[in-house]
């Protein structure tokens, strides 16, 4: 059985980059931590919300790398002088990646009640109609 690719469809021209992007996203291996929501806040804006209880602003980093939004968290171990009888709150590091389409910009990030909100916006697309002249050969 052969693998179907976008190049297999003769009417889909110039989508090779999209295919590479999909493959890269599939390989990113995001695990289920931390949980997150993605909501559409208007026709041209979105909000990603991650549950990052226990993380402070200094424990988190947000970068855009090659059209990929990367959110990383690393808590510092401050257990000196503390004796835990039970430790059920995870203090592990994480990395979450989100692939951004062309024209999607990352806005502000807000920490609120253990939730990290990252706002995204997309420019309103313009309809372009182009007429191509036919020359006699």
TrEMBL record:
Gene3D superfamilies: 2.60.40.790. Belongs to the small heat shock protein (HSP20) family. The lineage of its organism: Bacteria, Pseudomonadati, Pseudomonadota, Alphaproteobacteria, Rhodobacterales. Residues 27-137 form the SHSP domain. The keyword Cell membrane does not apply. InterPro entries: A-crystallin/Hsp20_dom (IPR002068), ACD_IbpA/B (IPR037913), HSP20-like_chaperone (IPR008978). PANTHER family: PTHR47062, SMALL HEAT SHOCK PROTEIN IBPA. Transmembrane segments: none annotated. This is Hsp20 family protein. Keywords: Stress response.
């Amino acid at each position: 059985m052969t693998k179907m690719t976008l190049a297999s469809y003769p009417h889909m021209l110039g989508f090779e980059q999209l295919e590479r992007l999909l493959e890269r996203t599939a390989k990113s291996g995001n695990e289920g931590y931390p949980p997150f929501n993605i909501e559409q806040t208007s026709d041209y804006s979105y909000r990603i919300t991650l549950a990052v209880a226990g993380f402070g602003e200094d424990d988190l980093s947000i970068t855009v790398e090659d059209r990929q939004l990367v959110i990383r968290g690393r808590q510092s171990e401050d257990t000196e002088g503390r004796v835990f009888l039970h430790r059920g709150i995870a203090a592990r590091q994480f990395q979450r990646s989100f692939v951004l389409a062309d024209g999607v910009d990352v806005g502000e990030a807000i920490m609120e009640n253990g939730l990290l909100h990252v706002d995204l916006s997309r420019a309103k697309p313009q309809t372009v109609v182009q007429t191509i002249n036919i020359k006699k050969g």
